[in-house]
Design brief:
heterodimer; A: 140 residues; alpha+beta; Heat Shock Protein 90; 5 helices; globular; B: 116 residues; alpha/beta; Udp-n-acetylmuramoylalanyl-d-glutamate--2,6- Diaminopimelate Ligase, Chain: A, domain 1; 6 strands
Chain lengths: 140, 116
């Protein structure tokens, strides 16, 4: 077993093709730590959607992942435009992503709903013009 | 159904990771929207898609998808192949369109998976 471990990633906002590198790295690390596969997949999917969101909407940001023996916490912080209406943003199918993102396979309005679906606990703190911090937990 | 059998049914080329082509595929999922793919987890699944960019490989990685089939003759570039090779995910390319690709596999007994 392991004590609390913390990783921090800077997510670049200017290269969509590289979005997901941080999530991929975390997935690899969790597998090596023998975290149960279901928990690994929940973390990978919810963090990946969050990472994609950061690149699409906020010109990147920072992700901190804390791992303890019974919980994985992901903190995704950006200095983007903030979310105007969280309830609306949480609705499946609602999207403010530009059209060119849809041609890349995202922007279907499933990002936040998927993050909520795969994490065991999700909290969004946002302020217009200041940024957004999403904290997600997956219990092991 | 194995990945090799899928390649045969779809008259598809196995572009990389042929060493994993004898893995068993249990379910399939066809979509060009990666967020839709991410919404439903299936076990030992093959992804059929007309989208061709690195996020397809990453989506497959996050979902533990074991094989990707590019439809309509789409071919992954070198960077995508490299990503897939690192993760051991076989990439296939078929000339069939999405509807026929799904139909051929369904006809041969492959089904979509259940909800998460």
């Amino acid at each position: 077993m392991y004590d609390a471990i913390k990783f921090t990633y800077n997510v670049s906002g200017d290269d969509f093709t590289r979005a997901g590198e941080a999530s991929s790295d975390v997935k690899g690390k969790l597998k090596k730590m023998n975290v149960p596969p279901d928990a690994v997949r929940k973390v990978a999917i919810s963090m990946y959607e969050g990472e994609i969101n950061m690149v699409i909407h906020a010109d990147g940001g920072q992700i901190t992942v804390e791992i303890t023996k019974d919980c994985i916490t992901m903190i995704l912080a950006d200095k983007g435009p903030g979310i105007k209406d969280i309830d609306q943003a949480m609705q499946a199918g609602f999207s403010t992503a530009p059209d060119n993102i849809r041609t890349l396979g995202f922007g279907a309005g499933m990002g936040l709903p998927n993050m909520k679906k795969y994490s065991d606990d999700m909290k969004i703190e946002t302020e217009l013009g200041v940024g957004t911090t999403v904290t997600m937990k997956v219990f092991i | 159904m194995t990945i090799r059998e899928i390649a045969k049914i779809l008259d598809a080329e196995i572009i990389c990771c042929e060493e994993n082509a004898d893995l068993d595929v249990h379910t399939a999922c066809g979509s060009d929207m990666m967020s839709d793919v991410l919404a439903y987890v299936k076990n030992q699944s093959v992804l059929l898609t007309g989208l061709c960019n690195p996020q397809v490989i990453r989506t497959a990685e996050m979902m533990d998808i074991i094989c990707i089939v590019f439809v309509r003759g789409k071919r992954p570039d070198e960077a995508m192949i490299e990503l897939a090779v690192e993760r051991g995910i076989p990439l296939l390319s078929t000339g069939h369109r999405m509807f026929n690709t799904c139909g051929l596999l369904y006809d041969n007994g492959l089904r979509g998976g259940g909800d998460f």
